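re: that chain from earlier
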Amino acid sequence: MRLMETRDEAPVCRADLKTFGAVAAKVDPDDLGVARWGPFTLNLADMSYRFRVGGGKPGGPGGFWFMVYEGKFEQQGGKWVALPFEMGEHGRGR
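^ sequence. v structure.
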């Protein structure tokens, strides 16, 4: 079973599947409606998802940056489909 399929477009791409394909999803025992997989979080209770991307290193040249994206998902034709996401929080640091 594939937890998530990504596209060949930023900010996520098929390389994410290669990176996280063998990683099992983690479920919080105190909140069974939330699953985490790599940088992705699925909230099954409110049918939403979020993921974080970033780059650079603290203290490195140019510092580091991150962006958090959030969206909803719904069932369409018997398949779960992620609806378009929006950028939420973002930041830079040294």
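The longest strand covers residues 64-76.
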